[in-house]
Amino acid sequence: MDLIHKSDEEIMRVVTPIMDNLMEASTEINYEKHLLNHTERAKKTLSKEALEMMCKSYQAEFGIFADRELMGIARHHNYINVVWKQKMSKSQDEFLAILCLVQEGTRYLVDRCWIDLWQPQS
Q1: Which fold has domain 3-116?
Q2: What's the pTM value of the predicted model, to 2 decimals?
Q3: pLDDT tens-digit readout, 5-48
Q4: Exposure of 80 by Cβ count < 10 A (0-12 exposed, 13-18 middle, 19+ buried)?
């Protein structure tokens, strides 16, 4: 697979605009834009209503996505996980943002992406 053999810099040139689009689409709560670079499998796992509910919920509590800082790239034989420290506009906390990138033919697509906004309950 071509993707696995790319340098970190090459991977970041591919994944950065994809992640930027996801962040913008989530902020805008734009379902079609959010799914633009997703695999068909990933598209089937997220309904428009579920995305709207998730975005409204996290935006009310944490705000919108702010700065993110690359933590690392983990290679698997058929996908790559890119992990960032993610900041939110209403929080001083740092969260994890993880994007799983796969290659389908000549296209690079998101198969999973999540921001770990989990908070322990006391």
Answers
A1: Nuclear Transport Factor 2; Chain: A, (3.10.450)
A2: 0.93
A3: 999 999 999 999 999 999 999 999 999 999 999 999 999 999 99
A4: buried
